[in-house]
Amino acid sequence: MNLIFLGPPGAGKGTQAKVLEEKFGYRQISTGDILRRHVAEGTPLGVEAKGYMSRGDLVPDELILRMMDGELEQSSDVILDGFPRNVAQATALDELLARKKRNAVAVLFDVDRDVLTDRLTGRWTHPGSGRTYHAKNNPPKVPEIDDVTGEPLVQRPDDAEETVKNRLAVYDEQTAPLIAYYDDPGDSRLARVDALAPIEKVSRQLIDFVRSHPNGAA
Description:
Structural class: alpha/beta
Largest sheet: 5 strands, parallel
Strand content: 5-15%
CATH class of the domain at 2-26 and 77-111 and 169-212: Alpha Beta
CATH topology of the domain at 2-26 and 77-111 and 169-212: Rossmann fold
CATH architecture of the domain at 2-26 and 77-111 and 169-212: 3-Layer(aba) Sandwich
């Protein structure tokens, strides 16, 4: 069973994808990672994508879907993170999966916006390892210093408060309509998890969902 993770930035999708990778052998597919890899390797798709990117244009959905087609051939169970971003992409993805006789279920990471904003704006990162801390919820032993290396932590530009608000506004406008698409009353393919619960409880929600789904893992 393929999973589509939906939710605003900072909802914990990446963290939970790793849990399911380790537990069930899922492979997380990020559109950004695919694009960067194709461009770096100079594949025909990468060369085509680089032309758009160098002009500052969005890479067309059709090109992204061709890349996604290749990724789906390599793995039976994947987690899509960052794709689809809108209903048009979701429709095209459904058509692609249907041709492959595969199904997908969307998982919505439910969050309260005020809490999420606080979570993001308090986040600090160790650049070398990607370790993250939070000024309130998971502070380092020494403020702004990594516990392991003693090196300075940084706050990413996209975690600044104004940037966070803009990112959430973009999410609402472009991506939130996917919730309605996958939660069609006649054929709902949407599961919800409480993404503000402790990480271990979120993981348990997802593991139980995958195990209980007719097409899920054992």
